[in-house]
Amino acid sequence: METIAMIRLRLTSEYLAGPIFCPDPDRMGHVDIEDLPLCPELMVKISEWDGEYQSTFNNDYPPDSCFATPEAELRHKAEGEELAKSMQQELGSSYMVEYCP
């Protein structure tokens, strides 16, 4: 009987990159959200969450990139944690989803 390896995914905030990354050596790289079997509503929520983070990027001086307030950053991180849980629930046992703030 062949063992099917679980696919690991990380939901993370990273400037100028997508929010989903696969750290597995044989699949390493960013994953397009459209390539995952997620419902359209969750895809939209993840895209909006990532868009919120990308909007904090400071083109003039990238090291100054940040949220407007510490509270906004905490809210973003809490939402990311919930999105990762929703991803795990929808993707099931073939995937292991972790949130990396």
Write the layout of secondary structure elements.
Layout: E1 7-12, E2 20-22, E3 29-30, H1 40-54, H2 70-91, E4 95-100
Parallel strand pairs: 1-4
Antiparallel strand pairs: 1-2, 2-3
Would you kindly provide a written description of the structure presented here, covering whatever features stand out?
By secondary structure, the chain is α+β, with helices and mostly antiparallel strands. It has one domain. 37% of the residues lie in helices and 17% in strands. It is built from 2 helices and 4 strands, in the order βββααβ. Strands 3-2-1-4 form a 4-stranded mixed beta sheet, covered by helices on one side. A hairpin with a 6-residue loop joins strand 2 and strand 3. The mean pLDDT is 95.
The count of DSSP E runs of length 2 or more, i.e. the number of strands, is 4
Unreliable stretches: none
Can you write the helix and strand succession as a string?
EEEHHE
What overall form do the CA principal axes indicate?
Answer: globular
Oligomer: single chain
- Distance N to C terminus: 37 Å
Task: Give the helix tally.
Answer: 2
Provide the gyration radius in Å.
15 Å
Mean pLDDT: 95
Largest sheet: 4 strands, mixed
Sheet with the most strands: spatial strand order? 3-2-1-4
Structural class: alpha+beta
Strand content: 15-25%
Domain count: 1
Overall helicity:
25-40%
